[in-house]
Predict the 3D structure of the following.
Amino acid sequence: MPMSTHVVPPLKDKSLFIEAAFINGQFVQAASGKTFEVTDPATNKAIASIPELTVAETKLAIDAAAEAFKSFRKTLPRERATMLRKWYDLVLANKEDLATLITWENGKPIADARMEVSYAAEFLQWFAEEAPRLYGDTIPSGVRTNRIVTIRQPVGVCGLITPWNFPSAMITRKMGPALAAGCTIVAKAPAETPLSCLALAELAIRAGFPKGVINIITASTNTAVIGEEMCTNPTIKKLSFTGSTNVGKLLMKQCSSTLKKLSFELGGNAPFIVFDDADVDAAVAAAILCKFRTSGQTCVCANRIYVQDGIHDVFAARLADGVREFKVGGGYDQDTTHGPLIHDRAVGKVHEHVNDALAKGAEVLVGGTHLENLGPNFYQPTVITGMTKDMRIHTEETFGPIAGVFRFKTEKEVVDLANDSSVGLAGYFFSSDIGRIWRVAEALEVGMVAVNTGIVSDVAAPFGGVKESGFGREGSKYGTEEYTVIKSITFGGI
Ligand code: NAD
């Protein structure tokens, strides 16, 4: 296979390509003049130079957000809804440009990037609708002459940190509810994919958000010290982080000195279980979707595929057939189904997981090779059988296009295997037995269960994990709760 042609289409609106950070309503460069490079994962070529901000500039952004909070918290929920709705319209109006940016900096196929923009926009629409519904309660008092009500107020300045795998949707999933609640924001853009975040900020200005309400910090080598500032600065009242479990644990420790409100959306290691009584074709189609989307780089990706004895061989063979039909290539090639991994470290981890499984007795049905002829970060989508629980794919999130298939005999055995994990984000299973469906859905130690479907992400459904996948819920009617505090007000003398 030749190197991908990979022609980046020109943006219709060139002002959405922004090589600057965004503080207090201004796009700015670093005072030091330092920059870092953003590269195209399909070619490793530099595509942008972005300011390497410092702790001092992060403090300026935090101060700007604190100043803006004084008036933004007093805006009417319907005024915030109008701004969010305008932002939603602008995101959709600029969908093609935003998708182009996602493919450029993240590598995912343009069709997936377009879907991501729609998904990202949905959070703005959803939380525009939620903003006027920040209801409180009336509560019977234990004191005869008293009455109690509760109100929900914005928590304050929020620090948001997001990963590169969904450069737009991870941002709007946090900003939508924060803004709906009346909070102001300091967001640290992912170093690999800041362009999408900055383009969204530009559209937010056009939607009417006042200066200082949204601030975007950009950094690569300074990430850890900026993260520490966001965690320890007492002006930030809430930290919402999506990323790896290890970084989540570090940030939680750092936040303890100021006892911030926290939401952590961390790593997963999703079990995908297929029982003998399942519709095998539907299970194969779902496994292809939820294992290989974004080349396996989503937190809800199936990581451990458990198939019951009676249908194991037919499932594995059909899964391998499906994977053989993939077209791996540059994200702008219209027939590409799967793009590159984000960088060489990701390729290295995938390779290690495959080699570890093979050394312990697994067998490759398809794939298992680094596709260097396509570009530095391409890895062939892979199906491996003969998996056992001593292999790294069982215990670690691979975050790559490797489907490891395990064989099991009984329901109890597979539930124990599925729960044998320190993390618990998503879990999938296929069965036609209604009793089993309830039992297994209740037994899986995860925050989200998908039954007879490979789709678990939906703006209407609460998104989040248990165990070391973190806590807090995004999207859904619960999303704004993460950005509000409940205040009780007791009225006496009645
Ligand atoms: P990561 O933890 O390395 O980085 C995530 C973000 O945190 C990036 O913006 C990064 O710049 C920043 N960061 C890294 N170290 C930091 C520090 N010391 N202080 C402050 N910020 C810091 O994760 P990643 O490799 O970019 O993303 C992949 C991980 O994210 C996977 O584990 C995946 O499962 C997880 N993820 C979880 C969800 C979810 O909703 N649960 C969604 C997407 C990704």
User: Anything to note?
Assistant: Residues 110-130 form the longest helix (21 residues). The longest strand covers residues 147-154. The pocket of nicotinamide-adenine-dinucleotide is lined by residues 161-165, 188, 190-191, 223-224, 227, 242-244, 247, 250-251, 265-268, 299, 397, 399, 425, 465 (CB under 6 Å).
